[in-house]
Amino acid sequence: MPAVYWMQLHPVRLTGLAVLGYFFISLVPLIIHYLKKLATFLWQRSAWATQIMDLLFERVRWNVAPVEEFQWLRLMLFVAVPFPGTGAWTGTIISSVHGMPFWSGLSANFVGVVLAGLLINLLMNLGLKYTTGSGVLLFIVSTIVWGALRGTKKSLN
Question: What are the TM regions of this chain, as residue ranges (predicted)?
Answer without folding.
Answer: 12-35, 72-94, 106-124, 130-149
